[in-house]
Specification:
The chain is mostly beta strands. Helix content is 0%, strand content 28%.
């Protein structure tokens, strides 16, 4: 079964420890997944980035928010 999880990074530097990471959720046969999990966030988070990780691999990501070429 394929899964995803998501991590929030603060400060615009994805090479540091994430501020929060969700648990893994399954990806449907159609390629859809929904993460319904509450996480504790820091009081401030400058330049937040959310990375979506395949199969629990926190060193890889398949999607990113807030990035522009």
């Amino acid at each position: 079964m394929l899964t995803i999880s998501a991590s929030l990074f603060c400060g615009g530097d994805a090479n540091v420890t994430p501020a929060a990471t969700t648990g893994q959720v399954p990806i449907s046969a159609d390629g859809d997944a929904r993460i319904h999990q509450q996480v504790t966030l820091p009081a401030t988070c400058l330049a937040p980035i959310v990375l979506v990780h395949p199969n629990g691999g926190l060193t890889r990501y398949i999607s990113v928010t807030g990035w522009r070429p």
